Amino acid sequence: MDKTKNKDQVKNDQDDDYLLLDDNANESNQNLKTELSIEDMAAELKETRDDLEHYRKLYDDTFNKLKYSLADFDNYRKNIEKQNTLRILSVKADMLSTVVNLREDFMRALDTLKHHKVDISILEGLTNILKNIDLFLEKENVSEIKALNSVFDPNFHEIIGFSYVEGDVEENIITREIRKGYLLNDRVLRPSLVEVSKKIIKNIDNDNKEDTKGDEV
């Protein structure tokens, strides 16, 4: 009886030892799996960071290209708008120059008629037409350039002759306006054609005391 009991006890002890060995083996395997997972996670984290850095650089490059493209497009749009504005202004200036020339022809014809026996109602009608032309030019911001008795300014005036003067009279003063000039806004639509004052240079060393004129253009 005691021998049988001892055999059972020994067998139970052996079973407990096997179970303990199995538990230890499972625990070792679990620790190994845990260590491998951390390494894998570190590798994945590094890969994720590399991908994130790659896409961040890609985003920055794409954003900069988009920004420069928008700036180029904005400059292109402004350039086109400027060219269109200048083209429209050029066409408008040509049209208004034609109107100005017609106005001056009209004024010469009207002045001629005033020296002839013409019905007063006809002159009044033509004068009203001239006023309408002037109102149209005023509405389009066309104005005359001041010339007579002003200092010559090459930005607005064009010299076609000189008026020789003596004494204290200043030079480069516009003494005669041959043709009126006009401005469209602040730009010259047509320069004034003028004569300007120029002093006579006296040659006092000459025994004959001849007067000589300055150089002409």
TrEMBL record:
Q: What is this protein called?
A: Molular chaperone GrpE
Recite the UniProt keywords alphabetically.
Chaperone
Annotated GO biological processes are: protein folding
SUPFAM superfamilies on file: Coiled-coil domain of nucleotide exchange factor GrpE, Head domain of nucleotide exchange factor GrpE
Going by the entry's taxonomy, the superkingdom of the source organism is recorded as Archaea
Q: Name one GO molecular function term.
A: protein-folding chaperone binding
Q: Where is this region: Disordered?
A: 1-21
InterPro entries reported for this sequence: GrpE (IPR000740), GrpE_CC (IPR013805), GrpE_head (IPR009012)
Q: Write down the Pfam families for this protein, in alphabetical order.
A: GrpE (PF01025)
Range of residues in the leader sequence: none
- Family (UniProt): Belongs to the GrpE family.
UniProt biased composition (Basic and acidic residues): 1-13
